[in-house]
Amino acid sequence: MRPDILNPLFALVATLPGVGPKTSPLFDKALSPPHGGPARVADLLFHLPHSGIDRRSRPKIAEASHDGIVTLEVRVVDHRPPGGRNAKAPFRVLVEDDTGDLLLVFFLANHNWIERSLPIGATRWVSGKLELWDGHLQMVHPDKVLDEAGLAKLPPVEPVYGLTEGLGQRAVQKAVEGALTRMPPMPEWIDGPLLAQKRWPDFAHALIALHRPEGPEALDPQHPARLRLAYDELLASQVALGLMRARMRRLGGRASLGTGRISNSILAALPFRPTGAQEQALTEIRADLAADVRMLRLLQGDVGSGKTLVALLAMATVVEAGRQAAMMAPTEILARQHYERMVPLAEAAGLRIALITGRDKAAERSRTLAGLEAGEIDIAIGTHALFQESVGFRDLALAVVDEQHRFGVHQRLALGSKGEAVDILVMTATPIPRTLVLTYFGDMDVSMLREKPAGRQPIDTRAVAIERLDEVVAGVGRAIQAGARVYWVCPLVDENEDLDLAAATERRDVLAQFFGDRVGLVHGQMKGREKDAAMEAFQRGQTDILVATTVIEVGVDVPEATVMVIEHAERFGLAQLHQLRGRVGRGSGRSTCLLLYKAPLGQVAQARIEIMRETEDGFRIAEEDLRLRGEGEVLGTRQSGTPGFRLASLDVHGALLPVARDDARMIVDQDPDLASERGQAVRLLLYLFNRDEAMKLLRAG
Ligand code: ADP
Ligand code: MG
Question: Does residue 118 sit in the same domain as residue 210?
Fold first, then answer.
């Protein structure tokens, strides 16, 4: 149960002064709460101003800037109401100081209000944007017209919030003010010495400092108040991950000792030998499997480094111990591909494997489910369909999760509840930097495949302007003549899937004019069977060119493919480009990757393309990606920051992460039930950042 002290913060925004039934849906939209429900007071408080209007500087009229908002001290000289016939003309008020004069301009003005607020001869403070019109300085509809008493109440820096259509600054400012007055006094969850050392304010004062900025420095992401809140968010996520890990450890594991019987048959059936890196990762995984603690391990490897074989041999190990394994892939295409590649090896080694996806035939499906329950099937490969309640195992020992996304970890670990003491191996699609591992997986054990199978040739990567499309088409034609197979990727154009599809379909049609029925198409809106058919035709060489939306991004393996064309490469992130390029260069043939771009390239897009040309090292690319995404923020493109986080941004607050990790580790070690005084405070923190799911993992309920 959520502690009552949090009630005021969990009340809906709709209960705040000035928020009515009309505006509250606008708040839901502007705040887009991560919990998916209607916006709460806490969501509003975490909606920090993105900039501020500094009203403290008081320039003279002659010196005032015409760029931003200025506040001027003026004397009212004259009222100029609109002339008799023209009702649409504005009401003008002439004001001056020692250096010059200007006109305040009011359209559809309330004359009474002007008489009252700007009496002739009075001194007033007006705030707004200056502009030159018809040779005269004017300010149209000043934001503020204040007398001396009003000036005293003016905040020095006015916070400016992210809005949505129909929702104004004033409305948000007013609601935030209301929310701030509801802040309950809260116990401190941050470690005392750390708080003192960093000189951070407490939670409530941090929010106040950021929403009522005393100066522009309050908008700096390095401001102590901002750092504190970022730390709070990081700590909440690290504690949640820590609790999960502690629970897995506590539940204990079972030792699965392999005999080598099946693994050796698989190795004998392979046309190659495992790389040293693969051997090393397997040794680490087998040691975990053989221990009676639960495994929680991340297998990181570059595209094409051979993670699948490692997974298969790990699964074979638990089967040797008389138990079962499951492997979950992010898409149906991938699940099927894993399955099909494993079948011949499995047959050679006497492994019984089955495929479970969302669209199996009923009879086939019930046979598979029965086989899993009876233990007559050793390994299940599938999509998230593996989660379904109807899927049960006789004795599941190992769950392998072929990861595409970097979060939703809790959900993926649900596979672990399908057996007793299930060991978990998560595989990332591309390498990710250590900080991201910590952020999204917590303190997991990590195995790395840094070495690629021998004999791989470097991929020749080139950037080509889209204006040279005809040359590219000619080049593709020559490559096909020489027996190559070509991926042609069209990007996400925008949120609208139909448009994306149109772009890919159009490209297919254009290419078909040259290459006829040698051109295939695969996209996200196709039915599963159509997708398979298109992939298979390409795999078998019935088509030479496969035009695709990004569905092929994750893991599809066609060793004969040696050309990758990526259209609008400037729209892809670095990790995605690397992942796509990794689809070629898998066989021993020389491969080419053409990055088609539309000029002019932005700075970040250009940097990405440069890096792609420079290196194929996924670990290095991952680091650069993190760096560039940070730059994207600095350059004002305001990407969404760090996914899954509202206040913390890894590029700015990354240094706080290891501190939060260590602190979380200490909390979970010393007070695994969060029962102490500090533990109780940490519970509040988990609720505030929507990590309360993790509390279900506590020993005492
Ligand atoms: P990823 O790590 O991207 O998932 P895969 O597991 O799909 O990579 O492996 C890529 C390709 O490399 C596959 O065709 C696979 O059969 C092959 N492969 C894996 N291990 C080796 C090896 N040790 N030597 C040669 N080829 C290998
Ligand atoms: Mg893979």
Answer: no
